[in-house]
Amino acid sequence: MRTAELVRLLQRVPPFADPQARLEQVVTPAEAAATLLRTAERWDGLAGRSVLDLGCGTGRLAIGAAALGAHPVVGIDADVSAIAAASDAARSARLDVTFRHGEVGEAHAPAELVVMNPPFGAQRRHADRPFWDAAFALAERSVYAFSLAASRTFIARRTVARRAQVLEVVPVRWVLGRTFPHHRKAGVELDVELWAIRTGRTEDAGRAA
Q1: In the prediction, which pLDDT does 113 show?
Q2: Which domains, ranges and CATH numbers included, belong to the chain?
């Protein structure tokens, strides 16, 4: 699948019907999601890999992973309506993705790769930390995730503490559109980075997709 086709697929995944500010329910930009998935392909390959999407929302990352050949793919989110929307979107795309309702701390089944767009902590300080804790606990091989650049020190320290390895950290273009009532501008550009972190063994890191 070409990247342009992947972006179009991800754009068809609906945003949150009624986004909640306290949960920081913002849509993952399709281009950013595609960049994350292509990064995972480059480092690990997605075809045949098991993938867990923590805080999957309406399913853009999980659905994109499945479209690129990952299997099995599971997404978990605390919002029942988001899980329903994600399931509908996967069915519409004719992709096999399992979506489950629950908190990220309730996820216990590991996967080779964890992908996620966790809360950035704009509404609740440290709201991202349970996501990173779960990611390091459950990713048998690698984590691919977005974060504000301001969280770089925290993530780097947590990576060292977990004896993991940062593969790369790259800036991604991220424009937050008007989502919540307190948003006054049509769009605000955020300083967001994409992290690729190896949690497991590295001997077959060059495996092609």
Answers
A1: 98
A2: 3-17+26-198 (3.40.50.150)
